[in-house]
Amino acid sequence: MWAPKQAGEEGGYDKDEFVLAPQQAGDGNLDDDALDDSLIVEPEWEPPVEEREDHGSMDDPVTAEDLADEADQEHQHRAHNNIQARAQGQCGCTVVPYPDPCAGQRIANQANCHAANVEYEAHFVDVEKENLYHPFSSKMDWEVVRWAKLCGLSLTAFSDLLAIDGVSECLALSFKNANELNSIIDHELPTSRPKFKREQIIVAGEAFDVYYHNVIECVRSLYSDPDFAQYLAFAPERHYADEDETICLFHDMHTRKWWWGTQKKLDQHCPGGTIIPIIILSDKTQVTLFRNKSVYPVYLTIGNIPKEIRCKLSCGAHILLAYLPSTRLEHITNKASHRRTMANLYHACLSRVLAPLKSVGLDGLHMASGDGTLRRCHLLFASFIGDYPEQLLATGIKFGECLKCDIDADEMGSNTAPEVLDALATLDEGNLSFVHACLAVGIKPIVHPFWEDLPFANIFRAITPDILHQLYQGLVKHLLGWLSAACGAAEIDAHCRRLPLNHHICLFSKGITGLSRISGTEHAQICRFLLSIVIGIRLPNNLNGSRLLRAVQGLLDFLYLAQYPCHSSETLQLLIDYTERLHIDYAKDAYCATNHKDEFEKILHHKKYVNWRLTGDHCSEPYHLRPPDMTFRRLQTMTKHPSAKAVSIDKLVEDYGATYFREALARYIVQLNHANDPITLSGQALDVLALDIKWLSVDARRHGDATVTLDSVHARPQRNSGSQSPLARRSDTALVGLGPDTNDVVSAGTEGFRVGQVRAIFALPSKSIPLLFPPTIWVPNHLAYIEWFTPFPPAPDRHHGLYKLSRSLHGGEKVASVVPVANIVRSVHLIPDFGAVVPREWTSDTVLDDCHTFWLNLYLDRYTFCIFK
């Protein structure tokens, strides 16, 4: 659509200004063809919609299998739409409260109950109220302490710093070395969480040490934390995506069927109680760097806290509950006896740790939340999170069998929870009867498993999916090996090395087939482009690749769907496993700590108290929990100041590759002025923002981090690096809205959006705006020069579900526009159509210009997957 700039064209430009003037035929910078083709305002939005084609990648006919796949995809599409519509607030969320209003209600007589921060403040009653930072002398004193203890600084390094002459005096610190500081923390700061205690467990005639906190005090510490007070859930609810209450939504634990059903059972025994769901996380890990020392760390959190908080380790919603002993039992040579003893040791220790839950689960106890509200709380074991070996150990199920359903590996009709409990009850009938009874229901003969006497507990329903080991390091690992054998490792690696850059994509410069010990993060990265890089690749004996693509698509769809933060009755209910990340933050650091006074926890608790004093927020209003996708809103941010000023258009065209920038900007000015006459631009200096656009998540519920970068789009020029070859320019691809509501991707669908390559981000000079526009016209602060790709086809490819796009051309030239930066919704990733053999001259930096056709990567992240599926 845009004619290229004519050779040798120049004009009377003023370096610092743009000048708007009527364009006469044959006069100015642009020739007549360029004026007719690009500067005359058309009634419809440009670029014009081009003819759409059926972009099929295979020539095989439609089969019954294809029709079945289409039916499955249609069902999945409806499920996705229900989730998306609820997330966008189109159909809202219908909340049905628990029918008995007494469930979770507060206790009327709370005369002696105080908020957690008030009780903490009571430790400093004899201190002058003016000092907010007591027992530290000043704000400077406190900030130095917080930095020293929370930033991983060693005691030796801190002592060496304070030993420098004048440092302590200049900062007016109340301590002169690390020992004096530790003394203040140990004796003047209250203990925020319970202390470890040690007991011995006797199993098979051998004594083992187990270290653990009091489980009730751990729960009380989390439940009474003032940071969580306004977010806690106290009673179950049912959430629906529609007003007819036909599509259930499941996200936080209080929306699960477990809480609703358990509340009914509890009400029959003791009405009006508040359930505190106990979530146990366990995984064996090595805690020292020598002598092969390892333990079983056990963590605890509660389901009353929203999962967005629980999943943020920085929020402190987990407590290291216990260290279970790990021993090789080398003196037991019989393998069966060895495995049985190890399992019995694990359950004996965990039974001792969780023993207090047996009584408080049924009878309850009075417990105050962080805002001082008192309720009768019932602590009930609800969920167990661990990898597959841990799940087998906790349930007693044999390796290879399902932990959730009652189906044997070989036949139907196996164990249920009541049958398992009946089998465990045969222990008094003798060892032989006990072993046979356990084998009959499909479990190992465990003597009194930890969950046996816990009220309302069902270990088989408590098990959560293990995404890391079962899907990433299980399914994806085998899928990658299968594809390497089928498609050829060399060609797969060649495709990986030539992927375009994107915020969400990690480039594997050496390929992916030769990786060893792939982490969960690396597996997740590989899944983002795995399907796209095998499209069109040559298979042995020239076999048709449609079945391979369908298989890969189905597995990736399952993987992504399994990790939805909110599920409906139409989607799989799976949860994200995050136990691996807890090892470094809780188990290993706590094990290696030399200060038995829990100074880390004390400093964190005092930090919360100081913030409470500073903000003056001494009361919390009731808060109604909302579904997770309503929590965050995306905030687009830009660089405050331009990275370059007075950049000539010619240099912008050269460095950024913005070939038709002059013509696109002229057209945008005409359109914004609602004018019909073409214009010429006199002047060529403008501000260029040569950085990137970022989208931040703004946490409206203040769950932790104020903002997190969700996405970004880069538009950077070619630069000299001082070496022989300059640094290549970067021009990311993005999803650009065509209408006024650019953020409503769900309602607009693919019809309301186009994919474009962002070549440059810029701003008009402030001096030139009054010359270009009347005062009544609002001019966006930031603009972007975009080169377009073709519109979305009516439907994705039927073999793999991806949309095929190509460069939008008019007369052989790229179609380009200037749009407000606000119209850019998010980044997208285009995978080149590599074909059977990728051209080896292509590179990651140039592939967007070298290739002509692309596939839109639907697996870039879960948000993109949800939008386009």
Task: Please tag this protein with its features.
disordered N terminus; seven-stranded antiparallel sheet; 32% helix; eight-stranded mixed sheet; 869 residues; alpha+beta; 30 strands
N- to C-terminal distance: 32 Å
Structural class: alpha+beta
Q: Give the overall shape.
A: globular
Number of strands: 30
Question: Percent of residues in beta strands?
Answer: 15-25%
Segments where pLDDT lies below 50 for 5+ residues? Answer: 1-58, 84-91, 407-415, 572-576, 578-597, 618-632
Describe the structure.
- By secondary structure, the chain is α+β, with helices and mostly antiparallel strands.
- The chain has a domain at 398-445.
- Helices cover 32% and strands 18% of the residues.
- The protein is built from 28 helices and 30 strands.
- The strands form seven sheets. Strands 3, 4, 7, 8, 9, 10, 11 and 12 form an eight-stranded mixed sheet that branches. Strands 15, 17, 21, 22, 23, 27 and 28 form a seven-stranded antiparallel sheet that branches. It has a four-stranded antiparallel sheet with strand order 2-5-6-13, covered by helices on one side.
- The chain is globular.
- The relative contact order is 0.13.
Record the SSE blueprint.
Layout: E1 19-22, H1 32-39, H2 64-87, E2 94-97, H3 116-121, H4 139-150, H5 155-163, H6 167-170, H7 178-188, E3 197-203, E4 206-212, H8 215-223, E5 237-240, E6 248-250, H9 257-269, E7 274-282, E8 285-286, E9 294-302, H10 307-310, E10 319-324, H11 335-354, H12 357-363, E11 365-368, E12 374-385, H13 388-395, H14 417-424, H15 431-440, H16 459-462, H17 467-487, H18 489-496, H19 520-527, H20 546-562, E13 567-568, H21 582-592, H22 599-615, E14 632-637, E15 644-648, H23 649-656, H24 661-672, E16 679-682, E17 685-688, E18 692-699, E19 707-716, E20 730-731, E21 733-737, H25 745-748, E22 753-763, H26 769-772, E23 783-788, E24 804-806, E25 809-810, E26 813-814, E27 816-820, E28 824-827, E29 830-832, H27 847-850, E30 853-856, H28 862-868
Parallel strand pairs: 7-12
Antiparallel strand pairs: 1-16, 2-5, 3-4, 4-10, 5-6, 6-13, 7-9, 8-9, 9-10, 11-12, 14-18, 15-17, 17-22, 18-19, 19-20, 21-22, 21-28, 22-23, 23-27, 24-30, 25-26, 29-30
Helix pairs in contact: 4-22, 14-15, 17-18, 17-19, 17-20
